[in-house]
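User: Quick sanity check before I run a bigger batch. Here is a single chain. Can you write out its predicted 3D structure?
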Amino acid sequence: MLKQPLRLITVLCLLAMYSLSSCVSVKPYQKNRLNDSEMDLTARKSQKFEQSFQLYREGGSGANGGKSGGGCGCN
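Assistant: Done. Predicted structure follows.
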């Protein structure tokens, strides 16, 4: 009967240790890795050009804030 609560406590402790191990503050000298251009969520310049070309060609735009209009590109 004592094995059930002991096993539950062990599992809960392991789960707590596993989830709390990722809570680490970033040191100032480690922050340069977070500022890489690969970590940026916006599109790169080459992707922006290709995307604007495709939007004008297709005549529509999505949720990216581009102009919407006809397929001729004359908004």
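Residues 44-74 form one domain.

User: Great, the batch can go ahead then.
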